[in-house]
Amino acid sequence: MCISIFFCNFAVELCHLMKRLAQIVTKIIDFFYHPFEKWMSRQLFHYAACGGGNLVLDWFLYFITYNFVVGHENVNMTLDIGRWTLEQVITPHIAALCIVFPITLLTGFWLQKNVTFTHSDVKRGIQLWRYIVIVMLNLAVNYYGLKVCVEIMGWYPTPSKVLITLFTVAVSYAGQKYYTFRINNP
């Protein structure tokens, strides 16, 4: 009984903390909005700031992961399932992508849900599912883009990742605004 009360109280406190954090992030972004209000809506500015912040986090984590966690080495993965053993070698630039992806998926969803698209009437679970669909599309573009840029064209991994990500930003904004976080009853 005491444990369940503890976890309930912890969950409530965590929700309040996350809501307060969203308010702080929103106030910081709004502080910088005024010079841009002639050229873009507040929502677009929030999207750019949140997405840009998450994008920089993605690039930073990718750089750290590629250079220091994976260390430019192939990653050998072995999965034992009963009588079967599945072995896969993952190139370092793809391994870094796989490690960083879940982190920026969650931070991106949280920022877009709680800072940018706060008025959507779509249920949270559906939003998360739709957000994942858009992000998976972007992940596929990133995966195949990295394969082409690094393995076929011989470009460096980090600049390749930056260029590919810039391409996916436009698609992502339209998808998130009109699909994931749309407003059904304006």
Layout of SSEs?
Blueprint: H1 2-33, H2 42-69, E1 75-81, E2 84-90, H3 92-116, H4 124-152, H5 157-180
Antiparallel strand pairs: 1-2
Helix pairs in contact: 1-2, 1-3, 2-3, 2-5, 3-4, 4-5
Structure description:
With 186 residues, the protein is mainly alpha-helical. It has one domain. 74% of the residues lie in helices and 8% in strands. It is built from 5 helices and 2 strands. A two-stranded antiparallel sheet has the order 1-2. α1 packs across α2, α2 runs antiparallel to α3 and α3 runs antiparallel to α4. It starts with a helix and ends in a 6-residue tail after the last helix.
- Strand percentage: 5-15%
Number of helices: 5
Helix content: over 70%
- Total count of domains: 1
* Strand arrangement, major sheet: 1-2
